[in-house]
Specification:
heterodimer; A: 178 residues; mainly alpha; 7 helices; 66% helix; B: 207 residues; alpha+beta; Glutaredoxin; five-stranded mixed β-sheet
Amino acid sequence: MSAKIPPSGPSPTESGRGTSSPYGSVVGVAARVLVGAVLVYAGATKAAGPAEEFAIVIGSYDLLPRDMVLTAATFLPWVEILVGWSLILGLKLRVAAAAAGSLFAAFLFALLTVKAKGIELPNCGCFGDGVHLTLTQGLIFDSALAALCWLAWRSSPARLSLDSWAEGGYTGRDHAKR
Amino acid sequence: MDRMTRLAVSAALVLAASAGSFLVARGRVKPYSPAAPGYRALGPADAKVTIVEFSDFECPACRVAEPPMRGILKLFDGKVRLVFKHFPLERMHKFARPAAIASECAGRQGKFWEFHHDLYDHQSEWPSEKFEERMAAYAKNAKLDLAAWSACRADPSADAAVSADVKDGENAWVGSTPTFFINGKRFVGAMQLSERGTPWIEKELKK
């Protein structure tokens, strides 16, 4: 007579992360690469241009003190680029996904403030001089990307990532405990 | 390779990718000439401070920047040189290029600044179906030789001079007007010019 002993603890698929199924893994990688690529493109187009131009756009939101606007215009594009590449390459994935989510939440807050104040923006400043989005387009775009950040956050630990390589190979749930 | 080394290599990869994407977006830095014909310059040629202005006669923000610019020229009279470069934003302002050409032709008769002032002071009047009528009135105000001025406006060299300025502006990453370069440092719009331009000029003059 033998009795089957159930495995102790939740199975990997019960961890709530969805990273163990191939489907979840692919969705997670796609989400983080998509969000990362958008951030890199948005950041690089702005960083490549003059900060003074981007400062005009940031100033038109009327959210920051005037003496902080140029500093924000100088550094924000680089934050976008670094967070974007961290997502694409999967370095400190959860931190990068949370940072990206915070950026999109901040952008959404800025756009909603502009809408509430009735400010006419010449350009949302999302992609420098490249692509101009209307206020509504910006709100939809940023909301969708914020949702993808959540998928990217859930995808950690991920097989295709620098995190996995730095930690000595993908190890599923145990990997996250390290 | 231990864990810390792998993390350091990973961070270096992210930094390298970031720098690479910036360089790709920036492209090759193109030469930009701040020079313009003498009739589009004010102030001594050997001034310690040179302000290069890229501007569009039909642009409301450029009109707003006129009083602070005139104030700066008055405040630093004899110490500052202003060089005007055409940068008509043709996608938005359909009369901007013809106005730039008209002013260029006034300049060839030594009356650029008179025409320039009329264009900004009456900006609400001329970008309309009355364009030709208003231009002729400003030309008369400036006491231009009207026949020579009209012939110049049809001359491709006037249009080419405007295009050359636009190319210089594009090479200098001018994306909006007015953009000022004060001894090479960029200021965009009237607010940056008013708030940061004057202290910058004072600093440059003390050098």
